[in-house]
Amino acid sequence: MTLTDAADRAGWYDRLFAAIYEPFLALGERRGMAARRRDLLAGAVGSVLEIGAGTGLNLPHYPAAVTGLTVSEPNAAMRAVLRRRLSADAVSRRGGGTSAVSRRGGGTSAVSRRGDGTGAVSRRRDGTGAVLHRQVGVDAIQISPAAAEALPFPDGTFDTVVSTLVLCTVEDPVAAVAEVRRVLRPGGRFLVLEHVRGEHGSRLERRQHRFAGPWEKFAAGCRCDRATAEILGDAGFDGTALRRERWAGMPSIVAPLVVGSLPVAGRGAG
Ligand SMILES: C[S@@+](CC[C@H](N)C(=O)[O-])C[C@H]1O[C@@H](n2cnc3c(N)ncnc32)[C@H](O)[C@@H]1O
């Protein structure tokens, strides 16, 4: 069974977690996370892949410089919420006669826009109460069920890959980061916003280790003690480009963040 097959069989807890995800994050989003998403995604350009897109909290923040957007999400319950958000948004634009929702074979769906095609703006209330204000200059947003460890895209497909709060949860973060490198074109950027393990030897790190098991059960596989910054560095991404920040409004074990726009060197380099 592949990772995607496994995730496609969304169990009751997956469905519950998808339903409570945004309410659980709401305080953190208000206390800086939504602004952090917006600032990071301002750097997205061209053809963009977002891995582990979850319920789609990043969607309102993509800028007009994005010309194509693929959002991958292996969890069927999360994907259902994501699809509803995109569909509702497309339907809300239909009044202007410029958009349509279509479904393709192989489980990939697209929310596509016709007519003016670029830079159109729509507004609706989304699940977090924020205004969904999309200005993505794209013809179609593709939804893929792919797991980050096995991305079904050729080498060098994307100008930008986005990962927010995902590398804590993927089963094999080393494989996932290697896949991100592979699908980024030389000179492309990996936009990263991840919670990470606390400083080595700190009380926080000990607390993270202590609560890692129960937290993983509660948060659908999330490891609060994952050394994601080191994994990125080992994969050849420039760790010095990562800023250390704190996620306010959330439990301390997930508070330490790394944020950054990481350049990818030519394949075969470092
Ligand atoms: C904490 S949520 C983050 C969702 C979203 N990126 C955000 O910023 O709100 C982690 C997401 O990673 C997804 N995920 C889990 N395993 C994955 C994998 N192997 N590849 C890609 N995404 C995965 C989960 O289904 C979930 O949607």
From TrEMBL:
<dbReference type="Pfam" id="PF08241">
    <property type="entry name" value="Methyltransf_11"/>
</dbReference>
<dbReference type="InterPro" id="IPR013216">
    <property type="entry name" value="Methyltransf_11"/>
</dbReference>
<feature type="region of interest" description="Disordered">
    <location>
        <begin position="93"/>
        <end position="128"/>
    </location>
</feature>
<keyword id="KW-0808">Transferase</keyword>
<protein>
    <submittedName>
        <fullName>Methylase involved in ubiquinone/menaquinone biosynthesis</fullName>
    </submittedName>
</protein>
<keyword id="KW-0830">Ubiquinone</keyword>
<feature type="compositionally biased region" description="Gly residues">
    <location>
        <begin position="94"/>
        <end position="108"/>
    </location>
</feature>
<dbReference type="GO" id="GO:0032259">
    <property type="term" value="P:methylation"/>
</dbReference>
<dbReference type="GO" id="GO:0008757">
    <property type="term" value="F:S-adenosylmethionine-dependent methyltransferase activity"/>
</dbReference>
<dbReference type="InterPro" id="IPR029063">
    <property type="entry name" value="SAM-dependent_MTases_sf"/>
</dbReference>
<keyword id="KW-0489">Methyltransferase</keyword>
<dbReference type="InterPro" id="IPR052356">
    <property type="entry name" value="Thiol_S-MT"/>
</dbReference>
<feature type="domain" description="Methyltransferase type 11">
    <location>
        <begin position="138"/>
        <end position="192"/>
    </location>
</feature>
